[in-house]
Amino acid sequence: MTTRTVDDPAQELDTVIRNTPGVTALYRSSGLLGQVIAEGRRALAVEAYARVTESGGKLAVTVTIGTGGDSAVDTCRAVHDTITTWMHKHGHPNTAITVTIAHVTA
Question: Model pTM greater than 0.85?
Fold first, then answer.
């Protein structure tokens, strides 16, 4: 089974996630080498921060956020719900979603 990155939805998801109340930052969701490569691609406007992959015909979204002001748990749930709603709207109702909080600002 192969996994491939899907860029088109991720570009739009970045905007949707950034507009979720409580989100203060959006970070890359990959290892160091992946981050270096992604930064170069992002500089060329090729890759988004949200990572959308496909494996076995099923999509998965991975996103890493910063939060502040609101409850980190509430913000994480809001981001998850926002992604779920967006994916349903675009015809992907069974998407696996992983939201990681990398930074909490008091």
Answer: no
